[in-house]
Amino acid sequence: MRSNIKKQLRIYFISSSEIGLGRIEEALKSGVTMFQLREKGDHILSGEALTAFALNLKNLTEKYNVPLIINDDTELAETVNADGVHLGQDDLKPSELSSFFDEKIVGLSVADQNELSVSDLSRVDYIGTGPVFETLSKKDAGKAIGTKGLKAMREAVGELPIVAIGGITHQNFKECLKNGADGISVISAISHADDIKTAVRSFM
Q: What does each of the 204 residues of the chain score in pLDDT, given as a tens digit?
């Protein structure tokens, strides 16, 4: 699954279990190219309930041939044999990952060039950059870097795949693609949509 990462990042949907498997399947069926389980927020699962949900989710992503990425929780990723893990700057460092992840997709959040300067990218397959625009979906998101910041990151990392995140909508996603992103990470523009199929396909 690692050979096609730029294409897989094209419409990268991030959500918690709260949205439900039915709506996630609708998104997968409609054209989402990568899915990340980010179990953070007020109404989240833990323990056996989270493991059971993630196992059902893995079956769904396999059905639609979409990589399943687990945010932060490396133990859960190993338990359900996820396709990869996404780490933040304050999480486990990529170099500290177990050998399980040697053949998996490893993503790292790198907001700007300051974070890039202290990031070890030796085991990283792609970086998530942003927030590009102001966002309410992630309470821990920093200041928006704009498309100018995104373009600067593209120039700084060369060919390493980049997915843009933060405040991305149907109105502004093309600006991200024009300024160096290989794909876009979307949370609320899909999860809060009345019609998920239309929401996903409008990003194509």
A: 556 999 999 999 999 999 999 999 999 999 999 999 999 888 899 999 999 999 999 999 999 999 999 999 999 999 999 999 999 999 899 999 999 999 999 999 999 989 999 999 989 999 999 999 987 655 555 789 999 999 999 999 999 999 999 999 999 999 999 999 999 999 999 999 999 999 999 999
Token reading at 59: 């079956």
Annotated binding site for Mg(2+): 72, 91
Cα 102 from Cα 59, distance rounded (Å): 22
Helix axis angle for 47-63 and 21-30, nearest 10°, is: 20
pTM of the predicted protein model: 0.94
What ranges do the domains of the chain cover? 2-201
Q: Which residue positions form the known binding site?
A: 36-40, 71-72, 91, 109, 135-138, 167, 187-188
User: Environment class of residue 107 by beta-carbon count within 10 Å: exposed (0-12), middle (13-18) or buried (19+)?
Assistant: buried
Q: Which residues are catalytic?
A: 38, 109, 138
Give me the architecture of the 2-201 domain, per CATH.
Answer: Alpha-Beta Barrel (3.20)
